[in-house]
Amino acid sequence: MLGLYPEIEPYDHGMLPVGDGNVIYWEECGNPAGKPVAFLHGGPGGGASARHRRLFDPEGYRILLFDQRGCGRSTPHGSTAEADLSVNTTWHLVADMELLREDRGIDRWQLFGGSWGSVLALAYAEQYPHRVSELVLRGVATLRVKEIQWLFGGGAACLFPEAWSRFLAPVPYARRSDNLLEVYHELLHHPDPEVHGPAAIAWSRWEGETVKFTPQEEVVSAFTEPEFALAIARIENHYFRHGGWLAEDQLIREAGKLTGIPCVLVQGRYDVVTPATTAWELAQVLPGAELKMISDAGHAFDEPRTLHELISTTDRFAPRWDEHENNEPRGTTRMLYGDEHVRRYEETDGEVGHEWKPGVPTLVLTTKGRKSGEDRKFALIYQEVDGNPVIVASKGGAPNHPGWYLNLEANPEARVQVLADKFTARARTVSGEERARLWDKLAEVWPDYNEYAKKTDREIPVVVLERV
């Protein structure tokens, strides 16, 4: 199962004036010469976070994140009196994106958007299709009346009645059958903090309690931080009251404009915030769209199988960028290490990662952790001899054996992947003449093994992985 890439810091960031008194925060991470990708956060009003940087291979992507008008580090913040929501609309944000693209000197970029971010991605791509290389959309929405009514008109309440009761708590009982978006508009803009504060927390908590397949307290806590809650509640309510300034079905009706743009839709089957029907309906009319329906997921991007599909998709799109001077696609020529090597190898059945360096093949070995009992995966150099892979427990000549070898000593049964060939094997450590013969074969592929042997007092094990 693929997970987030390691933590990274921006190599550049700044504030971009976009007009109407608004200044948006932006940052760039990863590879300045990589494939441009813009992360479009949810809400609207949710803001981008450090975790969002980790959805992309930092070696292959030039990762651009920004906080949309009124939220995150952009100013003025939606929780303040200075924020003018009349100049915060879908089309203002589309214009901001185009201004940011030009400011950063980007010709075309991949758009990665989840929830509200998928709406913004579609709106931008239908306006500027020639500027979009791919679309990766998660928790797909188009802001049709039925989508908004589902979440704020009682549909989702049938699944989360306790959370819905907390959403209704600030609403006077006599008005609970009214249009709740309009009632909440009054509450959120009431001058008394004792009125708009609890209303904002109740609004934001509703989303925090429904966003995960299994609600999590830390998520609810983040959504109910007062300043965050007031900004996202006011901005979301503003957008939803106006249907995102989109004609009904506009984004679906105009999907034909996206012909030729690769698009992947990753959708949780049990997404309560943006129900699966929208992703399915969009996939029927979006030319060439690939729908990934996740059977055990809700709305959040970091639910395990949803995250796996998102990382798989961004990894798959990364090597399609420009080419090196030797005409090899970016991402297939650079050396891979550790978890990233295993991830790319498994994802591509060894198309990426099998040849670690020219003439140096690798396999993926899965052992059982000797203490944890959990799967432990390693990418290792090998040679095939008499139909079985042979590997060396060198650890660079360190004084102790590598962890994978200690795992095999405790439990010699393992799983092996060589390119697309996956099989169960039993590990056997060889000795004597057999070891000498196999050592020579491995040293032909990786001569440094001879140097490693000189650095350590231990006899470096040579292991045959015999097919079961």
UniProtKB/TrEMBL annotation:
<protein>
    <recommendedName>
        <fullName>Proline iminopeptidase</fullName>
        <ecNumber>3.4.11.5</ecNumber>
    </recommendedName>
</protein>
<dbReference type="GO" id="GO:0006508">
    <property type="term" value="P:proteolysis"/>
</dbReference>
<feature type="domain" description="AB hydrolase-1">
    <location>
        <begin position="36"/>
        <end position="300"/>
    </location>
</feature>
<dbReference type="InterPro" id="IPR029058">
    <property type="entry name" value="AB_hydrolase_fold"/>
</dbReference>
<dbReference type="GO" id="GO:0004177">
    <property type="term" value="F:aminopeptidase activity"/>
</dbReference>
<keyword id="KW-0963">Cytoplasm</keyword>
<dbReference type="InterPro" id="IPR012349">
    <property type="entry name" value="Split_barrel_FMN-bd"/>
</dbReference>
<comment type="similarity">
    <text>Belongs to the peptidase S33 family.</text>
</comment>
<dbReference type="GO" id="GO:0005737">
    <property type="term" value="C:cytoplasm"/>
</dbReference>
<dbReference type="Pfam" id="PF04075">
    <property type="entry name" value="F420H2_quin_red"/>
</dbReference>
<dbReference type="InterPro" id="IPR002410">
    <property type="entry name" value="Peptidase_S33"/>
</dbReference>
<keyword id="KW-0031">Aminopeptidase</keyword>
<keyword id="KW-0645">Protease</keyword>
<dbReference type="InterPro" id="IPR004378">
    <property type="entry name" value="F420H2_quin_Rdtase"/>
</dbReference>
<dbReference type="InterPro" id="IPR000073">
    <property type="entry name" value="AB_hydrolase_1"/>
</dbReference>
<dbReference type="GO" id="GO:0016491">
    <property type="term" value="F:oxidoreductase activity"/>
</dbReference>
<dbReference type="Pfam" id="PF00561">
    <property type="entry name" value="Abhydrolase_1"/>
</dbReference>
<keyword id="KW-0378">Hydrolase</keyword>
<dbReference type="InterPro" id="IPR005944">
    <property type="entry name" value="Pro_iminopeptidase"/>
</dbReference>
